[in-house]
Amino acid sequence: MSTETPPDTEVGQWHRLDRRMLLIRPVLDVVKSLPVLIGTVILGRGNGWEWFGLGVTALTVFVGVSHVLTSRYRVADGQVEWTTGLLLRKHRAIPLDRIRTVDVTSEPKHRLFSLSAVRIGTGRHSVAQGSGNDQLVLDAVSQTEAHRLRTVLLHRKEISPETEAAPQEQVVAEVDRKWVRYAPFTLSGLAVVGAVFAAVWHFAHQLNIAPENVGPLRDLLDDLANTALWLIVVVAAVGLLVVVSLLSVGGYVLSFWNFKLTRESEGTLHVRRGLITTRSVSIEEERLRGVEVKEPLPLRIAGGARLTAIAGGLREGKGGDKGGGLLLPPAPVGRVHEVAAEVLRENFDPATVPLNRHPRRALTRRLTRAIGGVLLLAAALFGLAWIDFLPSWMWQVALGLVPFAALVGWDRYRNLGHAIVGRYLVSRSGSLARATVAIRREGVTGIVVSRSFFQRRAGLITVTAPIAAGRGGYQVVDVGESAGLAMAERAAPGLLTPFLRRDAQR
To answer: Are 157 and 102 contacting, i.e. CB atoms less than 8 angstroms apart?
Structure first.
C-alpha cells in the first residue's frame, strides 16, 4: 500500500502490509540470528561452518521479507481474510460475527515509522495455532489503517479517507501522575529481581562460577562474615525494598503512561496506555458481563486497587495477552469504585454494597487451613533439622508465623461475602489477594453446587456461576447450604427448581 495516502477503502479490496516494514523486518531478523551467526563464525572458523551461519541468517531475512511482500488482507463477504506465503501459501478467514477484540499495539519498531500491529481475536482457543489464542495478526499497517480496521471490524462501519472522523468519545478515566505512589505496593519489581537473580545464578552455574571465587564477591562475603546477622538482614531487606520500588515505579510508568479509558458513541469502551510500547484495546459494552476489583494485600494497605473488565472475548493469557481487560491501573480505591459504577452504567457501585456474611463455620475452616499449613511446614523443617540437614532456626521461624497465619485466616473470613444487587451477583473473597466480583445475572449460563467432605460436615457449600467471560466461572465459597441455594435460585431463577423439588419429595 502507499505510504503517503490512506489505503483504498473499497469493500472487498485487498490490502498489503505497509512497505515501510521492509526497513525494519530485516534488521530484526538479523538480530534474532546473531547467536547462530556469532557461534558459527567463532567456533567454525577455518572449517566452513561460518557459511552455515550466514546461510541461516540469509534464509531468516528472506522469509521475513517474503512475509511482508506476500501478505494481503481484506474485509469482504462478512469476514476478514488474510493470505501470505511465497512457496507455501496460507489463507485464513474469520467471520466478522466471531471477532471479539481488535487490539492495536505500537512497539518502538512500529512507532519509528508511525506503524501499528493489529491483533484480531475471536476469544477462542485454538490448539492448531500453538499460541493458544485464535487470533490474526497484521504486524505492519499505518496508524490510519489500524484505526479504520478497528472501526470496521468492531462497529461494522466503514470510513473513507475523506470523512475520516474519529468516533465521539466520552472520557471515563485518565491516569493521574500521583498514582505512581501505588507502584511499589504492586510488587511487580519483585518478579523482575527474581527473574534477574535466577538468570544470573543459572548462567554462573553453567560456567561453573562460584561466588566465593569471584574477587569482589569474595571480599564482600569476607566482610559479611564479620558483621552481625541482624544487620545483614536489615541492610539486605532495605536494599531489596529500594530496588523493588524503583523497578515497580519504572514498570508502572512504562505500562500506564498516558492511560485513558473512554466510551465511544458506538457503545465501546476504549483503553489506551503505554509509554514506549503503546496499546489500544476496545471492549464492546454488549459483551461486558461485569467488573472485578482486585486488591492485593500491599495495595489494599496503601488504599489502592485495580479494576478489570469481565467481558466475552478478552484474552486471559500472559505476557502481551495479559491485562487486556484492564479498566484502571493501581489507583485510589475510591476512584476505582467510581469508575466501576460508570462503566456498568449504574448509579451505585456493586463492589461497595453490603454483603451477606458467611457462617462462623467458614471461619473455623479458614483458621484450620491457615494455621495447619504453617504447623505442617514447621514440622517438616523440624524433621530436617533433627537429621542435621537444616539449621534449627528455620523451624523456629516457621513456628513464629502461626500468629500471622491466624490473622490471615481471620481476614479471609472477614472478607467473605455475597449479595444479589439488582442485575448483579456480587461476591468477595481472599486476603492476600482480595477480589470483589460483580457479574450480571443474565450472563450466568448455569449453576454448579459442590461441597467437599469437610464442607459436608460443616454444612457449607460452594456455588459456582459459570459465565462466558473472564475466568469462565466465579465462586461463592463456604456459604451456608440454605443461604447458598437461595442465592443460586435468585441469581439464575428456575435452574435449581427441579432439583430442589426432587429433594423435597425425597
So the answer is: no
By CB atoms closer than 10 A (0-12, 13-18, 19+), residue 252 is buried
Residue 506, pLDDT above cutoff 60: no
Q: What is the pLDDT of residues 188-214, one digit of tens each?
A: 666 666 666 666 666 655 556 565 565
Nearest CA-CA partner of 99 in 157, 150, 23: 150
Residue pointed to by grid coordinates 487490539 = 103
Cell (9 digits) for 354? 453490603
Q: pLDDT averaged over the chain?
A: 80
List the 15-16 sheet strands across, edge first.
Answer: 15-16, 72-76, 79-84, 90-95
Share of the chain above pLDDT 90, in %: 28
Lowest mean pLDDT among 109-113, 170-174, 234-238, 475-479: 234-238
* Cβ pair 129, 315 in contact under 8 A: no
φ, ψ of residue 448 in degrees (nearest 5) = -120, 120
* 173: β partners: 261
Q: Quick one: average pLDDT of 316-342?
A: 78
- Answer whether 113's CB lies under 8 Å from 20's CB: yes
- If you count DSSP H runs as helices and E runs as strands, how many of each does the chain have, helices first? 16, 20
**CA dist., res. 82 & res. 91, Å (int):** 6
Grid cell digits, residue 248: 515497580
Closest CA to 345 of 405, 423, 398: 423
Is-contact 273 151, C-beta < 8 A?
Answer: no
Residue 390 pLDDT > 60: yes
DSSP letter assigned to residue 294: E
Averaged pLDDT for residues 349-360: 86
* b/e code 403-416 from CB counts within 10 Å (16+ = b): eebeebbebbbebb
Residue 164 has pLDDT above 60, yes or no: no
Q: Are the beta carbons of 331 and 182 closer than 8 angstroms?
A: yes
> What gap in Å lies between CA 338 and CA 344, rounded to an integer?
10
Cβ contact 407:363 at 8 Å: no
Separation CA 263–CA 284 (nearest Å): 10
DSSP, res 287: G
List, in order, residues 6 or more apart from 234 with CB less than 8 Å away.
none
Residue 254 CB partners (closer than 8 Å, separation 6+): 274, 275, 276, 277
Intra-chain end-to-end CA distance of the chain, in Å: 72
Reduce the DSSP state of residue 305 to 3 states and report it. Answer: strand
Q: Return the number of other C-beta atoms located less than 10 Å from residue 245's C-beta.
A: 16
Beta-carbon-side half-sphere exposure of residue 170 (alpha carbons within 13 Å): 11
On whether the CB atoms of residues 415 and 438 are closer than 8 A, the answer is no
CB atoms within 10 A of CB 114: 13
Q: Which residues pair with 69 in a beta bridge?
A: none
Task: Answer whether 305's CB lies under 8 Å from 293's CB.
Answer: yes
**Three cell numbers at 200?**
544470573
